[in-house]
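User: Some background: our group keeps a shared notebook of sequences we're curious about, and every so often someone picks one and asks for a predicted structure to add to the entry. Today it's my turn. The entry only has the sequence so far, pasted here. Could you supply the structure so I can complete it?
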Amino acid sequence: MPSPTIVLVHGAFADAASWAPVTRELLDRGHRVLVPPVLNRSLSGDAAYVRSVVESIDGPVILAGHSYGGAVIGVAGAAENVVGLVFVSGYVLNEGESLGELQGGFPDSELAANLVYTPYPIDGADPGTDVSVAIDAFPAVFAAGVDPRAAEVFAVSQRPLSAAAFGEPAAVAAWKTKPSWGIVSSADHTINPDVERFGYQRAGLKEVVEIDAPHLVMQTHPSEVADLVEKAVAATNES
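Assistant: Of course. Here's the predicted structure to add to the notebook entry:
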C-alpha cells in the first residue's frame, strides 16, 4: 500500500495558511500533502466537502484537523480511504453531539467574551450569523505566541464560522473505527485545554502529546506537530 497522503484541515477563524509551517515541514520530509479550504458554514457541509476531497485522492489518507477542523475530520474521516486521524488542539465529537454541547461542559475560555456576531445573506432564506474574533483581541486570544506582525495579518484575514455550526450534531464519529492521535495545547486561550483532554480520553486515542503551546500550535511548534503526523503515517504504513 502506498504511503498515505496527508490532508490538513483548518479550523474556525483561520484558513489553510494556519497550517503553512507544518505543510512546509511535511513537504520537506517527502510527504504528499493537501490543505483544502473549508467554508466554515456547517459541520455537515464542511465535512461533506472535505470527504469529497479525500475520496478524490488515489490511495490512503491521514486526516489532521485543527480546532473546529477536528470536528470536521471526525465526520469526514468515515471515508473508506481514511486510515488515521490526528486531532490538533481539536474538538472530538461523539455521534449526535455538537460543539456547543461538548464545550458547554467546561468553563469558558477567553474566546467567548471576544466574539463578534455579524449577519450574512443566504439565498432564499433568512440571513445567517457569522462568528468571528474581535480584531483587537485576536492576537492575544487566538494567536498568542505567534509573531505579532503575523498575528495582525491573521486577525484581519480570519475566516468566520457560521453560528449554526455550533449547534449541529455530528452525524458519525470516525474515531470509533479509525486509529487516532491528538495534541493538547496546554496554554490554549481559545479552547479550554480540558475540552481537548476530555475528547481525546473519551475517544481512547493511540497517543496524546501535550505541548506548552497556544491554540495555533502549528505556527509555534510545527516540528512537534509534524512529528505526530508522521507517527500516524508510520503506524498506518506498518498495519
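Suggested note for the entry: Residues 119 and 125 are 12 Å apart (CA to CA). The radius of gyration is 16 Å.
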